[in-house]
Design brief:
The chain has 291 residues and is mainly α. The chain has three domains: 112 residues, Serine Threonine Protein Phosphatase 5, Tetratricopeptide repeat (Alpha Horseshoe), CATH 1.25.40; 72 residues; 92 residues, Serine Threonine Protein Phosphatase 5, Tetratricopeptide repeat (Alpha Horseshoe). Helices cover 72% and strands 0% of the residues. It is built from 16 helices and no strands.
Length: 291
């Protein structure tokens, strides 16, 4: 994983005495530029600062240290019950633990009270996707997109385009001729929008790799491009279980059964309950199998 560095001027501005309220958009973008040690140091120096605690929780999430992130968000809720940011963090940890009912309940409550809090919409869009409610996933991602780039942090805005593209691809996969034409055409162009926003995002690289792997040749499928994007995804985030699943499928396409089993095993080591890995292993093929 690329070593994260802290952007000091922005970091100091956020935590200066001039900041009286939590700006979640700025904090999310700061977390993407912040290493763990400075985040932990700042949070330890000022445990009463919700901003510093939230930033630490976000950094933990970025590093897949979900249990530690969960403890941070729980501490925040003890200090400020009902904090939307902390409630979202709690729900995101539950989502990553595959407790979709509990996470969904919290996320719906957040969206109802603050529709502009985009992280909740993106988290719920992921849940809807794996519940196979692809239309629901599209609607949630589209709302984030329609609010515009200035209303959302950069990572979640790019994820919105990637999520929209992925759900549209599944609608095309399961749909008839018209869906394949209309929904299918939306996939690549929205992934390209996400790529322009965050070209090195693991989520975006994964989306592009999945498209080139799963799309038919006439629809733009390209195994060589797929492998390149998926390898870049795991280089950018070596703990990204979904990317290992698609890499496993890529090896299956190449006829390399041993490599297929290796990458699928890597995915299960990282995330034993991973929906995509279970789908491939059990040959359920809800999220598209390849031969």
């Amino acid at each position: 994983m690329r070593k994260k560095i802290i952007f000091l001027p922005l970091f100091l501005f956020i935590f200066s005495g001039t900041c009286f309220c939590m700006d979640w958009k700025v904090l999310h973008e700061t977390a993407d530029k912040t290493a763990l040690a400075p985040a932990e140091e700042e949070a330890a120096k000022d445990p009463g600062s919700l901003d510093k605690q939230y930033l630490l929780g976000l950094v933990y999430l970025n590093l897949h240290r979900d249990a530690e992130a969960g403890r941070v968000f729980e501490r925040m809720l003890q200090k400020k019950p009902g904090s939307i940011e902390a409630e979202w963090g709690k729900a995101e940890v539950l989502r990553r633990r595959h407790d979709f009912p509990a996470a969904e309940k919290i996320l719906k409550k957040i969206i109802s009270s603050d529709p502009g809090f985009s992280p909740a919409s993106i988290s719920l869009a992921y849940i809807k996707y794996f519940q196979m409610d692809f239309n629901g996933s599209v609607r949630l991602a589209l709302k984030v997109i329609q609010r515009g780039e200035g209303a959302t942090d950069l990572s979640n805005y790019a994820r919105a385009y990637a999520m929209y593209a992925g759900a549209k691809g599944m609608l095309a996969h399961y749909g008839g001729v018209f869906s394949k034409a209309i929904d299918g055409l939306a996939v690549k162009k929205n992934l390209e929008k996400a790529q322009r926003l965050q070209p090195d995002s693991p989520a975006v690289l994964f989306g592009l790799g999945s498209f080139y792997l799963l799309a038919p040749a006439l629809g733009g499928g390209n195994p060589s491009l797929a492998e390149g994007y998926l390898r870049r995804a795991v280089e950018a985030d070596p703990l990204f279980a979904d990317a290992y699943v698609r890499l496993a499928q890529m090896e299956l396409v190449k006829g390399n059964r041993k490599a297929y089993e290796f990458y699928l095993d890597q995915a299960f080591k990282l995330d034993p309950g991973n929906e995509l890995a279970l789908d491939v292993k059990n040959r359920s093929c809800k999220f598209i199998c390849v031969e």
